[in-house]
């Protein structure tokens, strides 16, 4: 039971720390693609 609780906490911590940078990276990549598409026209 304690091991399962630790696993859930670990997953939650990874979700909290890993999710925000993922969103930032996704938005910056999307913006860069947009700029590249604008420059190509």
TrEMBL record:
Highest taxon listed in the record's lineage: Bacteria
Protein known as: Uncharacterized protein
Organism for this UniProt entry: Mucilaginibacter polytrichastri
Source lineage: Bacteria, Pseudomonadati, Bacteroidota, Sphingobacteriia, Sphingobacteriales
